[in-house]
Each structure stands twice: as structure tokens, then as C-alpha cells.
# Entry
Amino acid sequence: MSKTFESPEAGDSGIVIGGSSFPANWRDIAGWRADGVSFSSPSNEAVKLYDALLHQAIYHYHDPMLGGFTGTSKSMLAADPDFAMGNIFTLGMDCFATSPLKNAEPRKKLIDFSAKAKSDGKLTEYELNHLIAAELMAAEDYWGAMIKFEEILRQFPRDPYALQMAYFLALTIGETKRLKDIPSSIVEHYTPSTPFYGHVFGKLCFGQGENCEYEAGEISGRKALDHFPLDNWAHHALAHNFEESGRALQGRLFLSNTARDWTQGTTFSHHIWWHTALFHVQLGEFDAALDLYDARIGPMTLKDGGNFPLSDGSSLLMRLHLEGVNIGERAREQATAWTNHNDDFVSLFYDGHNAFMSLLAGDRMACTTLINNMQEYIKGDRQGWNKDVTARVGVPLVEGITHYMDGEYSSAVQTLAPIMSELQGSIQGSRAQKDIYAQILLHAAARSGVSSDLNLAEEILTNKLKESKLEKHTPLNQRFYERMIAVHQH
Ligand SMILES: [Fe+2]
# Structure
């Protein structure tokens, strides 16, 4: 093991953070070759640091011994500035889910790197395939990139990066069935001593839950945590399982009892706090959810300021607003942060959050700017999956949200109902995340005063029950149903 990786607390067994160990058995060139992957770099140091980088990305933490993600990247490219896979990985990550207008620099670097690497002709087959996948991501062709990563995975089933990206691209483009099929396709190639063995089951857990296989999903998730208790994704996958199967109390207790482990993750824990708050909302514990926003979710999401964290903060506030909770001035801080993303257009899922949060904060101008920019984006030169989806349903989504926030509930129903199936099936996000849009439609239908809309609200709830393959409504939906019927009878 190179000196770079030595940890005085944990040695070869792992890095001690808060008393627990993250894995640190970084593979050198020979180690990767044993897992079927060959690099063109002669540097063992660079290759080991690439493995360290992957562990941090996949387990959602920053390794302080290596200077976190940024420090590890720098050390890796210092060890071998021409390390092809290191360059492809870092540039690909910089291009993924970013606007080409705002993130032109890594795209330019990727083009230059590609031209040189292809003319040198030294890339291994593995690296060349990853370069093509990175170029597809840079061009916002998420479908094409996902297919390419799947191809790589078929050829190199123990490639954790291809697994990670095929999986997250599937989540990004609403390919729910693939969230189970992708990890299922390679799990037989892993043994308990293979890096990321448990994590493959964590990915499977989430995919099984999203496809309503709750019992199988829970077994996979428990297996993942049994193998590696600090796996943030596996905690998160189990939280989804409890949420989707209507077991909010078990979910809240599970996250509370394992917080010591998942709070050690540094890049994803805001989202697990969000899931904790969702359980509070399900259980009608609104004060606890609001306290969690003030103590954790608000500060974490605003400090980061990125689309994904902001979607968590905003979604929680909107859910509480729909429940009739007074959220005070909190919408304003989220809405202000969203103004930095009014021309990103990396995911329609985020743009909808931007819209309802601006309106909740009373900033109609920001929402108007968003919709004007969206129309320019649709007419413009950018290509890709998000543009296709936005062109189909982006404007009606923002207009429907606007009607709802204006109290024009019947118009909101007329605008949102025809696009809801497309929204739920094509935009980024888990079922729990995308449910915010179904909830807005549900509330609009229940409040419009039109009897056909009330029938629609009942139909939405019945369909939710059928689609989730549950015998009874989740606590939130049951509460809503009872309230709706009581108001209607009154
Ligand atoms: Fe989630």
C-alpha cells in the first residue's frame, strides 16, 4: 500500500471517522486487472487514488485523510497527469447534470482530452468506452449515456463506476424498472470480498422498492448494511422502502436508530434528513418536521445551494404548506437560492420546485423569468432528454402550479391532470420525490368545488393504492381522504 493511503488509526482496514471504518483497500493496477479492468496508466498511485475517489463518490463521503474528493482528484492527477480514466471520470462528473452554458470549461477540456487520447491511440477498450459515455453526458444525451454504461457493465460487470452511472442515469430519466434490472444483472459477479459487494444490494434494495417489491427490497437493504453499516445509499434505500410501503413509524425509528452511521456521510445526509422529515409529515408530526427543517435541512440545503439539495428543502416546505402548516418566511430563503438556477434547465423536476417555491415566497417575477427562460430553452440549440421532456410538459407544469398557488384550483386540475402520467413516468426522481406534483394535483382536485374534480381526487388516491400494491393507504393519503370526504359531506 502506498504511503498516500496509510491511516494511523485504521491501517489497511479502513479510515476511522467517528469510530467506524470506511473501506480503504484501494486496488492497484493488478488489483483492478483481477476484477477485469485494465488501465493505460503505468502509475499504481494514480490507479489506487481513482479507486479511493470512486469509494467517496459511491458511498457519499469525503475522506479527510485524502483531502476529500477535491484533494483526492488533485493527488490522482498529480501522480499521473495523463491518467486517462482519472481525466475521463473527473471531467465526466463535471459535465453530468450541469448546463453547457454555465459549465463550458469541463466540456472544452473533455473535447481536447478526447481528441488527443484518440490520436495517441493508447486508451484501453475500457477507457475508450468510458470516454464515449462521458461525451454523451456532456452532450446531455442521458439516454445514450445510460445505454453506453450498460454496455460497459455487460463487458466489465465488476466496474463500480459503470454501475453507478447506468443506475443514476436511469433514475434521472425515469427508467424505474432499470433500477432493479441493472444491479440484478451483475450481482452474481460479486462475492463478499469484492469491493462494493454490499452496495450492489443497496442499489438493488432501492430498485426493488421503486418497483413495489418491498419484502425483497428490505432483505437486500439489510444485507447491504450488514456488509457495510456506513453505506448511506443503503440507509436511504431502506428509508424509501418504509416510505413507499406505508410504514412511516418503522422508517422514522430505523433512521433514528441508525443516525450515528448515516450522518457520517458528508454529501448525501441532507437527503436522509429529508426522508426523516417525510416520515414526520406522514405521521402528522408537523412541528417535528419544521424543527428538522430549521435545524438541519434548511441550513444544509441553503449552504450547498445546488439543485438537488434545494429540491429537498423546498419540497418539505411545500408538503407542509399543503398540510396547512404555517411555514413563515422560510419559503423566501429557498426561493432566493433558486434564482441562481433560473436558466439551468438540467432537470424539469427541479424547475417545478423552483416555480412553487418562488410563488410560495410571493416572488411572481422569478416564476415569470423561469417560464420565459424555459420557452427560450425549448426553442434553443441544446439537445437531450431533459429538453424533450420540458418541451412536452414543462410549460404546463409551471402554469398548473401557478394556477394552484393563485387559488384557481379548477384551472390547475385542467392543466396538470393531462400531463401527470407523463411527468411521473419521464422526469427525474424517486416515486417519493415526484409525488409532490401528484399531491399538488390532488389538493387542487379536492379544493376546486367541481364534482368531477372531486371524483378525480378519489380516482388519484385509488390509483396510488393500486400502483403501490398496498392494501391500505399510507397515513398521509388516508388522512387526506378522510378530510376530503368530511369537507364534501359538510
Ligand atoms: Fe430519496
In short: The beta strands are 15-17, 20-22. The longest strand covers residues 15-17. Residues 91 and 106 are 6 Å apart (CA to CA).
